[in-house]
Amino acid sequence: MDGRVVYLEWLSGYLEVRERSGTLLFRGSNTELGIEQRELTIKGPYEDVREYIADRRGERKIVYVDLAFPIKGIKPKTMYGVIVRASKDFNIGPFGIGYTKLENIGSYITVYPPPGFLFEQIIVSQHKIAIFTLGRRRIYVMEEGGVRRIMLV
After folding, report:
1. Which residues contact 9 (CB under 8 A, 6 or more apart)?
2. What is the pTM of this model?
3. How confident is the model over 57-66, as a mean pLDDT?
4. How many CB atoms lie within 10 A of CB 37?
């Protein structure tokens, strides 16, 4: 899919997705999320960050970010970009995006990063963000002026 801005149907509105200088940006009315090579930046309220080892050998880790409130869609006055209303896979810049709508349940987005990123995939749902990475990665959370940075090392 061509275009640098995509709007996905999301909770009675749209979630804006754009790529800028190697960073994937999501914007809803109450939350903004930035995905970079080594970190995620979250602007908006969240409750907790939890880590789980996903296999017996400790090779895979899942980091959950529990959001305080569901990510709400925006209602832009003018939209310049592609509007996606059904489940679809597409690319924005070097990122692969899987957009899935489940009737009566909601929507979620799977982000596949380009080579060199420190995570394998990220799933963004209305209530939670899941980061899949290697088990040896260390996770640090920093807060600066209402913006939380989740860094992978």
Report:
1. 73, 83, 84, 85, 101, 107
2. 0.90
3. 93
4. 13
